[in-house]
Design a protein that fits this description.
alpha+beta; disordered N terminus; Alpha-Beta Plaits; single chain
Amino acid sequence: MSTAKRPPGGKAAPARKPAGGGDGRRQPPRDARDGDGKPGRAPGRGASSAGPARGANAAGPARKGAAPARKPAGRSGGSGPARPPSRSRDEYPTVQAFIAIGANLGDAAAAVRAAMLAIGAIERTTVTASSSLYRSAPVDATGPDFINAVVAVRTGLTAEALLADLQLLELEAGRERSFPNAPRTLDLDLLTHGNTVKDTPALTLPHPRMRERAFVLKPLAEIAPDKVPRAALARVSKQVIERLRDTDASA
């Protein structure tokens, strides 16, 4: 049996104590102890680890000096795409448009006034001026006298989209196209849309017959005199049209 060599002096060097303590048992590392100095569970490295997560949605404390995480631009949470900020209708690029309104069935005056409100409720569209109500004899049409008006709008819709919404309002008002120029519960004509010039089977702009009709030019001249030349008004002067007083319009 071999014996350990003794250092000079004849005394053996004292045995080293384990790093964790004096009883020989291995102690957990310092950072794995609880706050009171007692041994605790060391954080594991697997999926069930109780340590702070490292992903984008981690709720653990941020490291000292680290920049704060940015919030998504749209929603306040979640991982979906950011939703663009909502804009009011005044923030959309718009053009000026003019719309002629007419009716000669049922309570025509009430239908025209309701149409003015309904046009103002169209998406991205605001009524900026409304003419008085006018009574006119039918032109190229049959039935009772018409009640007419014109409104000016600012709209962010294309001419085609605005026309589609106007036709929907006609349907909701009970418009039936049983034959050409039939009497109508509501008739909405897009007269102009900005500087748009268009000639398609579905839409012609400016309206091809607006300069031939007193029931369009008279109300239009009331709210936008710069849009109606005097010569055009003179050409339709023989057409029967009457501006209604407020009492007549409410009857």
